[in-house]
Amino acid sequence: MSYTVKQDGKFKFIEEGEGDPIIMLHGLFGAMSNFSGVIAHFSKTHKVIVPLLPLFELDLLHTTVGGLEKFFHKFIIHRGYQHIHLMGNSLGGHVALVHVIKNTDRIKSLILTGSSGLFENGMGDTYPKRGDYDYIRKKTEMTFYDPNTATKELVDEVYQIVNERMKVIKVISLARSAIKNNLSDELKNIHLPTLLIWGNNDCITPPFVGREFNRLIPQSELHFIDHCGHAPMMEVPSEFNIILEQFLRKLTHPAANS
After folding, report:
1. What are the backbone dihedrals phi and psi of residue 156, each rounded to the nearest 5 degrees, phi first?
2. pLDDT tens digits for 217-253?
3. Which class would CATH give 6-253?
4. What is the pTM of this model?
5. Where are the chain's structural domains?
């Protein structure tokens, strides 16, 4: 299912449904379409927002996790969102973490899936020669437990990115920023209800990363999904949605779940 991309000033985003907002942040090689299964489900009960992060639009100095967080902060202020359930996958989770460590006044809960911020295996230590489509296909397939989830359209998107010199430079800048910006000492300061959804077969942010987030974030709960890789909301959206729905229901009706 495709959704209309809205534009408000410099911000591009999907916004569907009504209710408390769920804002979803995509990863380094991600896109708004990564959340289509989640949007379809939760737009019936919530206002679901997916901003397009400016991975390749910021100047090189600000092409960092911190630069993306500043952009996101400006976005929610500009749009006036309140009582936000903030969700991030991979680098998007890292941006969400940096935000809630600095600002919690508009955030109601935090949802992380395959988040960086502690440890990750990226595209590798070296980047491929331009034109090495097979390498890119195999690397993209590694994101998922089922390699067929890496559609030709998805592989083509990644291939296009790594064949543009400035985009490659910015990918490297963001990847280095994510590695440098380790949050292990700051996670104890997050006092929001936090949901961690991890693929048991994630080889980019492996299961031990989810367990470490769970240990370090005080009010967190961790759920693993079998036969699932780095992007559960893409690979197994039905299971992902059930876990997220139960979490949100507990926040809305805490007495019924005590």
Report:
1. -60, -40
2. 999 999 999 999 999 999 999 999 999 999 999 998 7
3. alpha beta
4. 0.92
5. 6-253
